[in-house]
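From: lab user (bench 3)
To: helpdesk
Subject: output format question, protein + zinc ion

Hello, I'm new to running complex predictions and I'm not sure whether the block I got back is the full result or only part of it. Here's what I submitted:
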Amino acid sequence: MLICPKCGHNLTPLTVKPDPESSMELDHCYYCGGVWFDHYEINRIGLTEAEKLASHKKMDNTSNYSGNNQCPRDNTKLLRKTGESIPQNVTVLSCPVCNGNFVTQKDLIHLKDAQSKRLDYFKAWNIPLPKLSSILISVLIFSIAIGGVFLTVRNVEKSQEARIKAKETISVPTIIVSSANSVVVSFTTTIPTQSSVVYKAEGEVEPHTIPISIEKSINHTVVLQNLTSQTSYTLKVYIEEVPGEIIGSPTYSFTTN
Ligand SMILES: [Zn+2]
Ligand SMILES: [Zn+2]
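Helpdesk reply: Thanks, we reran it on our side. This is the complete output you should expect:
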């Protein structure tokens, strides 16, 4: 049984549907209303789901909370996450080991409200999203780069079937070198999907990962910024064709001006 880090009660599995075609299982505390999200799950639910989650709750007296503030998966002490993707009045507790996140129901609604408002702003002004990390909690970035998802990617890529599928689903990206320090990458997919790009300068060890489409789309565009001039880079795009199954494109390369 997973234990709620906030109030010490048991967490119960609760199925939510981020969109009509997919569902995912969260660990929810019926006592305090808090929700535990494994690795990148927190970015997959919207405001409506957050509001629905808030309706499942027993208790309103916050003075009785006596949780251990530990990760329900591996008992690591949770740390408060900060960054421009998280409003100042919202507390997101994060596990440095498994990248899971714990949020109370009230904070979850504030967070999702802020995220959707920011997304609407970009959409309304027709601004491409150069910094999705300003909207999304960066857990996706870390989990793809170093965590379990990356292993999934590798495993999936071993199978030839998955390679063929990726080739059929993802178009060859157009890479426009727009300046010495940035490029625009765009591609299409045959099915609406979320996507991210992983890129790395020649000789660099740690790759950078940036989410591209956080809402399912067939058109994917991202601006890679803060690149080093006159440097060769390699990149690969990833899509989540079905929940939990991530497939990657072949590796492409470009050189900055
Ligand atoms: Zn609780
Ligand atoms: Zn953990």
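A quick orientation on your result: The chain has two domains: 12-124, 132-255. Let us know if anything else is unclear.
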